[in-house]
Amino acid sequence: MTQQAVIYCRVSSPKQVTEGHGLASQETRCREYAKHKGYEVIDVFRDEGLSGKLLDRPNMKAMLSYIKKHKLDKLVVIIDDISRLARDIETHIHLRTAINNAGGKLESPSIEFGDDSDSRLVEHLLASVAAHQREKNAEQVQNRMKARMMNGYSVFNAPPGYVYDKVGKHGKLLVRDEPCASVIAEALENFASGHFETQNEVKRFLDASAHFPKNGHGVVHLQKVKDILTRILYAGYLDKSDWGIHLIKGHHEPLISFETYKKIQTRLNGQAKAPVRKDINEDFPLRGFVACASCGTPMTSCWSKGNGGQYAYYLCQQKGCTVRY
Hints:
This protein is of the alpha/beta class. It folds into 3 domains: about 5-145, Resolvase, N-terminal catalytic domain (Rossmann fold), CATH 3.40.50.1390; about 160-270, Putative Large Serine Recombinase, Chain B, Domain 2 (Hect, E3 ligase catalytic domain fold, Alpha-Beta Complex); about 280-325. Helices cover about 40% and strands about 20% of the residues. The chain has 10 helices and 10 strands. It has helices spanning about 15-20, 25-35, 60-70, 80-85, 90-100, 115-150, 180-195, 200-210, 220-230, 260-270, and strands at about 5-10, 40-50, 75-80, 105, 160-165, 170-175, 235-240, 245-250, 300-305, 310-315. The strands form 4 sheets. Strands 2-1-3-4 form a 4-stranded parallel sheet, sandwiched between helices. It has a two-stranded antiparallel ribbon with strand order 5-6. Strands 7-8 form a two-stranded antiparallel ribbon. The termini are far apart. The model is unreliable at about 275-280 (pLDDT under 50).
């Protein structure tokens, strides 16, 4: 009876998945090995974009369940290289044991697995080398990121208000993402000036903007508001203390001045208080959100008595403009 086998492939980089590299070449080599050994390949399991240190892999689990169902047949599990199974010695031993306990037999065109002490030693040495390579690659990536950041370029995901674009000699550079960038700039300026007295007012302003991204419930979380208020990147600088990077001037266009950023931090730290506005309370929920239809200036609000009653007004503060609602 022909020996049956399954193939397991893994790549850690999403780029390898989208560009079609890695998985296909691994499967090809494993199929050539199976053909050479006279095995019948009955299924292929692929984990895409997952770290070799990760134990909880969906298709690794699916493969182990598949092997258990065919336990009487003792399936061969073919991997292209020991690093495809794991890039961490503890993970390797755990998965190797799991495959064996499920009823599988691990094989590879790159290494001969055995149960004797010498084979185990070689296997563990190769798994340790794979772990070292993973850690070394991570160090090299971080060093390149750190060097680019020290040269004034952001290396992390673009925050709200920015997107990455290729700009001449700069390569990938943060550029303003309008109209979201202008919405954030307005929110920051208003908080710095005291027009928005609390973080909740900033939140309400962003909630009301159709151009600011919301969460799955259609609102802006207060933590995101705090992140925006404390993000020095909006002032044109880069800072990452655990990398020893402090106030590096960035090449990207800032949304606010550094002076505005400092005013915001002073207010957040409680070192200065904006003047208390006696004319704002729960009676005027739209203050800070509505603008004058005539000149575009943010509307203020107040109570007014007349004609035997009390009325709430939204007024334009611009000199010479008499618009009220």
